[in-house]
What does this fold into?
Amino acid sequence: MMQDFKNWIDRNLKGDPIIWGIVIILSIISIVVVYSATGSLAYKKSGGDTEKYLLDHSIMIALGLFVMWLAHKIPYRFYGIIGKSLLFVSVPLLLITYIFGSSINEANRWLTIPVINRAFQPSDIAKLALIATLASLLAKRQKNIDDFKNAFLPMIVVIGLVCGLIGLANMSTAILLLSTCLLLLFIGRVPMKYIAMVILVGALFLTSAVFLGQRGSTFFSRIERFMDADEIPFQAEQSFIAISTGGIAGKGPGKSEQRNTLPHPYSDFIYAIIIEEYGMIGGATVLFLYLALLYRGMRIVASSTKPFGGLLSAGLSFALVLQAMVNMAVAVGLGPITGLPLPLLSMGGTSLMFTGFSMGIILSISRGDHQDSAEAVSEGGNKLRKSFQPA
Amino acid sequence: MNIKRSIVLRVRVAFLVVALFAGAIFYRIVHLQFVEGEKWQAKSETINFQYRQVSATRGNIYAADGSLLATSLPFYRVVIDPMVAKEDVFAKGIDSLGLMLSAFYKDKSAESYRRMIKDARSGKKRYLIINRQQIGYQDMQKMSRWPIFRNGRMGGGVIFEKVEKRYRPFNNLASRTVGFVNEDKYGVGIEYSFNEYLEGQNGKALFQRIAGGSWKPVFDAEDVKPDDGYDILTTLDVNIQDVAETALLRQLQAKEAAFGCVIVMEVETGHIKALINLQRNKNGIGYGENYNFAIGDQGLTEPGSTFKLLSMLALLEEGKVNLQDSIDTGNGRFKFYDRYMNDSKKGGYGKITVKEAFEKSSNVAISRLVEQHFGHQPSKFMAYVQETGLHQPLSFQLKGEGIPYFKTPGQKNWYGTTLPWLSIGYEAKLTPLHTLTFYNAIANNGKMVKPMLVKAVARGNQIHERYDSEVLRKSIASSGTIEKLQQLLEGVVQNGTAKNIYTDEYRIAGKTGTAQKLIDGRYTQRYYTSFAGYFPADNPKYSAIVVIDSPQGFAAYGGDVSAPVFREIADKIYAQDLQLNKKENEKTYLANATLPYIQAGRVDELQMLCNKFGISNHVAGEAADGWVKSVPVNRSIQWKPNKTEAPVVPDVTGMSLRDALYVLENKGIKVVYQGKGRVKGQSISPGTPANNAYLINLVLG
It folds into this structure.
């Protein structure tokens, strides 16, 4: 019986089993905590129907896992091309969203897909696409990485464009993405002087986006409030109360009190709720799971034979874990309030699919069997990349 | 593979950085729990946050013509936090504030107000209700300019706590029908029956308790926005309601009756145009709307002679009698089993026709006929009752409708005397609304429509739900029978018990009813008098029922007590209704040959008016900015432009106050006025440079 199960797993869930395990554990934690945290939301918006959010969220998690399974089936060499085509789609999408999208908290970040009537953030697509494209660009230019004009310029243009567009409506995501890209450039052996230049250009783009965009004032007021030690923002204060009252072992599942006063307890501040209900033990476990995920992603870099696979894996793992770290840092008061969800744990609707997608790509790279055929298509991939260069 | 090694090394470096960051997060958790722990735990206990209700604005209730029957207005409770004001502000303002409060509320002296606030301040109180009496918006505006108060909430400590109150512009008019809802969601009338729509959806927001027990919203916006309630559009006609109420009240007072009610209904649609319930107040003085006798449980009574119409329907429908058949009523006394049936006329009517029997409301005749034809099979009679639907509730739009009561043949309580007494309206219970619905069906040529009070639920101009007239029975009897019943009802007013309300102007059809009241199981000398009918009989537009309970004095019959009220209501409706009153009145004034005196105003409005009335008019020259004065020229009116654009004081004589205010205040001139009507004179003559004028005095007349 156990043997059958193991065989089935071996047949269907390829790639790093530990990553599979971590994602599944985080998904289960997510369902349990979100169910608890949506209590007040359900009470306020759906007349007390808490199961509605449980069901919705579980379905989205299942869909995310399904997308992850699909993505890990595709040989990762295709993701270079997929990434670039997605990038071409996402730039106009970002513009459309900025101009027409529906606004939550006065920023246009969401676009509704007509048929299934689900809102999604085009910045999710753009993030994925940018990292894949960047990994591919870096991989191709490993031999002449010091060449400013041919190697570096295309990258900086793409990074600046995408981060700038995202920054118009969502500064936190843009800064996080920029940092991830910088990290990826560093890993991809780009000389430090160029990276310093990217910081400059990026800063330029982001500042202009702050002044032109919708959320400029929010951005500054949040930073100001973070700097101002005397006045702790309401959200942070409530989060601290949640964390400090949680204790070592927590109040127990579903016993959170702060979920009633903490804004967005199911997304932005889910980490505070986890600590309140499961204590320091729960908080440390989640922290450890993310680090383990990053560690496994790093292992893939070491074991991969092609730079593209390694860089893609590193980029996606860092993007996810960095966001997780920033979210948790906000909850414990190490950073200004950003509004970034905790990937894999927060109730986030469609963004769970994109997280699943990027986890699927990492898994696809971790499968040894896809690598063998990587050589065969690299010629075709080359031509495509050439045609991309002028952009 | 030095490239790969380099990449792997860099990844490890990055991983280490992230791991360090994770360590910092963990350190913060430990710090928060063990170092700052007590501080936050203490804070969690002191700060009091609560999700509190943000009330939705309750919907309005409108009459058919759009007049407001009930609406919600903001009122304010005046509260002060006496500790807020600074010493100099407080010391300087407290004396005059006391004076003003005393002058406003007129219940305490200036000194006692002053002392109350001062005591609260020295007692370090943070919440003092100045007066329980709530004030309106205008007064709130006025008060917020008073000393100390004018420094606002943060500087003076005044808090105007908003309370929403239900306000009825027409006071008691239809007040029972409009109804109320109390805080426990119990109530009556439309307010209660349509509460679901009216109350809307309350919102929620996070509030923080601040000193003094007040709650302050934490964020600007509500977490759950309140959804304002829907408006209810009723079928009530304010004019008819008013007319009917006045007429009923006068009769109740004259007859010192216990209670009375009137329902006026539109024949074709079942729209209730007026619904009045007046009951003598508990203290014995005056009458008030305390219970809906027309519809509710307590209104269920033995209907009396108005029920004879149903007996006639059964008899005619059965084909057993003709109106010209004669029947012997003998000496007005007839024995069924062990009980005597009496006619109201001493000595009886002798031998009369069936028609006369109905017109004179002979108990003996009707009960004998019914007993004769249905006595062997009472269930056949009951089948006719069921045919009309009178045995069941109407599922009327207001909650608490009375359920009609009828006995069932074959049951223990069905005696031999039940049928004869039932035939004249005893041993059964109906509400006035039921009886009226039946009479309305006769007026409507047999088509029974369901009475209705609410025609739509709307928000703004958007209709949310519309209620259409509902036909309960396409035909309650054959057309021949209906025609005969209509003849009978007209006969009652022409020759019968309601002869006193006969008029040449138009035709009334109806039936009187006088039922002895059953009190503690015995029939007493107190009566329940009613009149149900419709008008104009040749083409019925309205039906109505008038019920007056326990009138005092000699003439205590339906014809004497209730019928005159019906006539008065009918007269007034008939006089007001242009559609009904087609006949030219000789006294109508012929239009004067001279032109009407139109003075000044906007050219487009005046032209529209003149065109409507068919008065020829034209513009002389160019009407510069649309303001004109009129000049009569040969049976037509010429519009002369009134130059109001020039920087001089314009000529506003002849304008309505509204127009004059618009023109003058647009020039920055302050206006004061006296009188009513159009502008007769202005204190600054036209043509004076406008910048010299500051205040202008207008005389209206």
Chain A touches chain B through 48 residues (CB under 8 Å). Residues 16-73+232-363 of chain A form one domain. The first helix of chain A runs from residue 2 to 12. The longest strand of chain A covers residues 107-113.
